[in-house]
Structures are given as C-alpha cells and as structure tokens.
Amino acid sequence: MEQRVVVGVDGSDPGWRAVDWAADEAVRHGLSLHVVHATRWERYENVANLGLDRPSARVMAENIVATAERRAAVGRPDLKVTGETRAMDSVEALVEEGRSAYAVVVGTRGHGALAGALLGSVSLGVAGRATCPTVVVRDTAADPAEAQHTVVLGVDDMVGSPAVSFAFREAAARGRELHAVHAWRLPSDVEPEGPEREAAVRRADAMVDQMLRDATARHPEVAVHRDSVEGSAQHVLVEAAAQADLLVVGARGRHRRVGLELGLISHAALHHAPCPVAVVPHD
Predict the structure, then answer these.
(1) Would you say the pTM of this structure is higher than 0.85?
(2) Residue 44, Cβ neighbours under 10 Å: how many?
C-alpha cells in the first residue's frame, strides 16, 4: 500500500489547521494525503429520518470530508488527496488508518472539547495508540517572523531510533537545523559544583552524540545543534520549542491494546508546547 499522510477532520477550526499542516507535510515528502472523518452516525439510521434518504449526520460527515479535500488541494496542484467517512470511533479509525501511514495528523481539540481543556480526547488517544508518528497541531503557532526555523528533538536514552530518524527526516525536508535537546539533573546529594557535576555533563554530551550518530551519518545535509541542559525535561523541551517548526518526542510501546507509555515528558509536550508536536512510538 502506498504510504501517505493521514489527517483527521471534524469540521472544527483546529481540524482545518490540521488539514493545512498535513497537506504541506505530504507535499514536503512527496506523499499523498488521506482525509478521514469518523463518527458513529450509523446510530441514526434506524431512527425516522423524516423522509430523507440518508441520515443528516452522514451527509454532514461527507460534507466535512469534501471541504477538507478542496481545502488541501488549494495551491497544491500536484498533491493527491483522497477522503472517506468511517462509521466508527474516531480514535479507532485513525489508529487503524495509521498502520500504513507515514504519520497521522490531528488538531488539538474538536467540537466536543471541554472549555479550557488543553488537549482533546481524540488527539491524546491517537498519540497514545498509533503505531506511526502522531502529529498534534496546536491552535496557535509562533509568529513566522520570530520563528527559529528549527526542528527540536527531545533526546534521552529511551527516546528510540524511530524518533531520531523521524526528526532528521523532518529537518531535511524543511531545510531546517535540528536542535537536539537533552535535559539532565544531578542527584540531590551531589554538590552543584565539582568533579561529579563535570562528569555528569560529559555523560550527557556523550549520550546525545551516541543517540544521533547513525542519523547524522545518514543526513549530512542537516545541521545539528546539540544542547545538554540541567533542569526538568518537561520545562526544557517546552522552552526550546517556543519558536520551533516542530517538536519531536518518543513514546515507549507497551504491547497492549491501550497503547503507548507516553510518560510525563510526552504529556507535557502535547499539552504545553506552542508548536506542532510529533509523538513517535518505539518498542
């Protein structure tokens, strides 16, 4: 099956922003775009439909997909766009579509989000269960005039090579610098200054170099900036992504139906990073 970028739409403003981002992503990588709207509209089929041939919920779903297809095609004449409606749970549909996708793209919130919620249940559910990278597109983005034009990668010894490879591919496709960020902390019983701290700094730098070595060799065209920072990983990554094009983090697979172990760092990135966040699973 042809690999493609999949985007979930629901007719909300965050969903339309996800379509725009996904369409650009497909063009960057020379892939097709597949638009999916999933809802359990079939529950209305057995209800009197006042003479209509099809339930209005299904018609609305088809209209949303058609609108998304037209939107994605504007200004992108070479982009192949397909779309479909699925009569099933949104998370389940997108996870299923993602099994053969380069990435699944979703917005942060849909129509059903609670007021004040930072992340919708669909975006969090897909990020936690998809077997391909999930990109969550924020409601707001950095001012292009102030953007640093970087792809930020959160690096630790459990991030996994898929996340590293994905981040390098994204940086290469955009012609951007890769900013590899690793956060570390000294044990509370270690002096803040002295040989133990210096040793910790050397270990952190060596770990980052080791994690990036293979991908750096595969992508010599990507400029890499390494940054080992003492502090909370959640705060360090969110701050590093303040003006970035994309933040990439890894998630550990649990081999269970419930999906991935997103962890505190991935949750913090998804809820608080101002730029799009890619969650890349690995075993």
Answers:
(1) yes
(2) 14
- CA gap 123, 10 in Å, rounded: 12
Instruction: Identify the CA nearest to 173 among candidates 23, 18, 30.
Output: 30
Provide the terminal-to-terminal Cα distance of the chain, rounded to the nearest Å: 23
Structure confidence by residue, pLDDT tens digits, 123-166 = 889 998 999 999 999 876 555 555 568 999 999 876 668 999 99
Q: Which of 10, 18, 9, 8 lies closest to 111 in space, CA to CA?
A: 10
Rounded to the nearest angstrom, the gap between the alpha carbon of residue 253 and the centroid of all alpha carbons in its chain is: 16
Neighbours of 217 (CB within 10 A): 8
Reduce the secondary structure of 163-211 to three states and give it as a string: HHHHHHHHHHHHCCEEEEEEEECCCCCCCCCCHHHHHHHHHHHHHHHHH
75 and 122 in contact (C-beta within 8 Å)?
A: no
Of 147-151, 242-246, 251-255, the range with the highest mean pLDDT is 242-246
Alpha carbon distance 6, 106 (integer Å): 9
CA distance 194 to 196: 6
Closest C-alpha among 45, 76, 29 to residue 171: 29
Measured from the Cβ of residue 73, the count of other Cβ atoms closer than 10 Å reads 15
